[in-house]
Write a structure and sequence with these properties.
It contains twelve helices and eleven strands. By secondary structure, it is α/β, with parallel strands linked by helices.
Length: about 270
């Protein structure tokens, strides 16, 4: 008798050829000139009133019209998918304990400052986003049991999010969905996937820093109908000792002139795209 995971892969493989053409068209079809697709980094609008990956940051991003939300996922001690960026709850919650050392009931007791909300379970996030926006997954860590990935896929499917989800570092999620969830690649990995004969138009998106993405990579994307996504994140500019305001403004201007329409950004930079 087949395992649950084997059945999932078999079902995905059966209908993937039919769905793949539509998925590739959705990712790469011509857009009205100037139309932008913004992905909110760390769970939405993040500022002095909205903690990252919180219900309020999600709602604020949806209200502003963000096309997709990049969210961070960690596993609790009892195996639950928790929406949280940092290894511990120091920031926003004032608790130095690690996510993987706390159970779901213990995590539910925490309250954020600001907002007074508790950390979300991934399924709660999916319910909030269903039919309202899309998700990009950044699953922290790589040594998770299959049941953890299965629970994430189940939540995406039950809330009709599976077919529009991107995986930034999603562990086995793209594999378990037989390529339905597109995975992030840089140009080197994209070139290797093309050489293997992989149907990259439906299984991959190019993800590179805004300061790195260039015409060479964009030409590769155009030739193989792969969506390029540029990342404009504050901490990356700071790591490079670049004024983040000037760096993000320059990258946004340059990449828009080159035809890039998909940007994963810290919400403070959405002023450059309005």
């Amino acid at each position: 008798m087949r395992s649950r995971r084997e059945l999932l892969v078999a079902i995905g493989a059966a209908w993937l050829p039919l769905w793949g053409t539509a998925h590739a068209a959705w990712m790469t079809s011509p857009r009205p000139d100037g139309e932008l697709f913004l992905i909110a980094h760390r769970g939405g609008v993040v500022d002095e009133t909205h903690p990252e990956n919180s219900p309020s940051s999600v709602e604020a991003a949806i209200a502003r019209g963000y096309w997709m939300l990049e969210v961070d996922i960690r596993r609790s001690r009892d195996g639950q998918a928790i929406v949280q960026h940092d290894p511990t709850f120091d920031r926003f919650y004032g608790v130095s304990r690690a996510v993987d050392q706390m159970t779901r009931p213990e995590i539910a007791e925490l309250r954020a400052t600001p907002g007074d909300t508790r950390p979300m379970q991934f399924d709660e996030l999916c319910a909030r986003c269903a039919r309202r926006t899309r998700l990009m997954l950044d699953i922290k860590g790589a040594d998770h049991p299959d049941a953890f990935y299965d629970s994430i896929v189940d939540s995406l499917r039950r809330h009709d999010l599976l077919e529009t989800t991107y995986s930034l570092s999603g562990g086995r999620v793209p594999e378990l969905t037989a390529g339905v969830v597109a995975r992030a690649v840089d140009r080197r990995a994209l070139t290797a996937a093309i050489a293997r004969g992989e149907p990259v138009a439906r299984t991959c998106f190019l993800f590179e820093l805004g300061s790195v993405l260039d015409e060479e990579a964009l030409k590769l994307c155009r030739e193989h109908r792969v969506t390029p996504v540029a990342a404009l994140n504050t901490f990356r500019y700071e790591q490079a000792n670049v004024d983040h305001w000037k760096g993000a403004a320059a990258d946004a201007r340059r990449l828009r002139s080159l035809g890039v329409r998909h940007f994963q950004i810290d919400s403070i930079y959405d002023r450059y795209f309005t």
